[in-house]
């Protein structure tokens, strides 16, 4: 690479060099599992401008114009930096001010989120020519000390730096932000209905092409708090979007570990708009019936940004669902255990916040569902319900060596709650992982399965038949003597499913 001289190439070779560099760059800036994450627009524009500059050269000579030389120089710099850096992650551009006193970690650098949504990578040892920047001059630092907030790292030279906003646009397949009406249409918005909420924002049910969907609207990038919490930045919301898409992909039967119990992500939208009046009207209807705990979202002006998730309609939360018999309770438990087992296997996944508000239950006509694990295929009776897991705000997963997790080690409020077994689970997780939220500890999933078994047993069932009585006793035996003795949700599932693989 040191002996490489762009100026010595012929015109045709110069063009080929642009094509080669762009293709190599696009090759590594990708995620797996069918989730495309390519910054096509930047590299295609760079290719187009470079070729145009080349064509503008004096065709009677083999020299290149000043503009072409500048483009080729940028590409050369890009190629040098990429070859010197680990090509298995994607980094954000650096902050404007570097805290020189903050310690730097070779294997992990975290964003300053609140809570700290983090993505870390396999350890990468710096060579002698790759020392961290010591003088705060980012343009002179080959290995830029950017905070990891996406699943892979790419150090791209100034002046063109990848940013989280651009990353969200790419994930949403958008060239620019949309308004609510541009995204959904006026008629769809007019017929929407609010169905849920959280500190993150609001959830509405809509109908698109006669099919019901749920949209989760999260305000981001704002400078003021919403519902008592600081708005997430684009960098902080990006990991949740990645996890949603990865888990949605596990519903595909082609995966080596799969099941139908993760909510399908239909689409993501990057919105910039004031809160639509139709959404506000439905917020008022919901508030009149249930007294919302959120602030009315009329705070936003036209420059407010949102990330809007469109999910398949997964039903209602287990907290609000009336479980009528022990057979249904057993099916719910096994479906949740199966989902966690599949995600543990495929993605080293921990949910870490699986209270019964994050378990959706919907009626189904399917008599059974099938899940696939390395141990084989398993078929389970549905009991007439299909379960879906949602809300991965605190979740942890690993994909291609890149770890996505939420660092709650300093979140005192999370571990100080009382009044429900749910709050004990947060403390049990912290005790088990010794407040290390980066490492994979599947026993946290076990703790939430025990919580679920307790919640299901607290419900009142009609047990007039011997079968229902036997099923309820089986569920109680799992809760009392099986669940907490297993090291992972997969072990819980294999012990409780009580069937040989197909």
From TrEMBL:
UniProt GO molecular function: ATP binding; histone H3T3 kinase activity
Start-end of Polar residues biased regions: 110-123
Record-given protein name: non-specific serine/threonine protein kinase
GO biological process: intracellular signal transduction; mitotic cell cycle
Reactions catalysed according to its record: L-seryl-[protein] + ATP = O-phospho-L-seryl-[protein] + ADP + H(+); L-threonyl-[protein] + ATP = O-phospho-L-threonyl-[protein] + ADP + H(+)
Ranges where the record places region Disordered: 92-132
Organism taxonomic ancestry: Eukaryota, Metazoa, Ecdysozoa, Arthropoda, Chelicerata
Domain Protein kinase intervals: 189-502
Source organism: Amblyomma americanum (Lone star tick)
Compartment annotation: Chromosome; Cytoplasm
Enzyme Commission number(s): 2.7.11.1
Pfam family of the protein (one): Haspin_kinase
